[in-house]
Design goal:
Length: 197
Amino acid sequence: MTQEYINDSEQTERWFVMTLVVWAGCAFFVASRGAITRQIILGPLAILETAIPVAIYFWNTRFRSYVNSIDLKHLTIFHLWRLLAGFTFVAYGQKQFLPSTFVHNAGYGDVLVGLLVPVVLLLPGGAGKYLFFHIVGLLDFVLAVGTGLTLTLLGTPLMSNITAYPVVLIPLLGVPVSGAMHVMALDIAWKQLREKN
């Protein structure tokens, strides 16, 4: 491993961390100020915020090399936060702040994904188990966003509460970061499986 590669990797890591900090800071600022008042923009915004880092991952060799250097275990442990998101949605649902369909699909889906994390980590095996986990996690992401968009388009009144702080941080920050990480982890796991065969 050359010194130039190490320097490139460190520089990419700094850029990555700085971008995440700025992204999170902007999300917290926008959310806490109540700047997002229309739930209709959250779905498309989450999709756009997911697509941008995924596009950078596939187009930028340095960034892709950096992410590929992260162990799949660590890209999976991150998704433990989904327990917090899921239980938050469930709690909002019990207080009649969110529609039961959304709570069922997004809330319980996140809880399931979060509970799968330690199971996957404890299972024997390599890239295959991570491929399975990130497929499940990505499907949950698609189901949650799709349910939210559908209920919003149908004019379900309780969906307006998704824009309230702090729950709005889940679709504004957590969902796109998780979605992008799922896609990247799937690419890594798939490559590792192909290399073994």
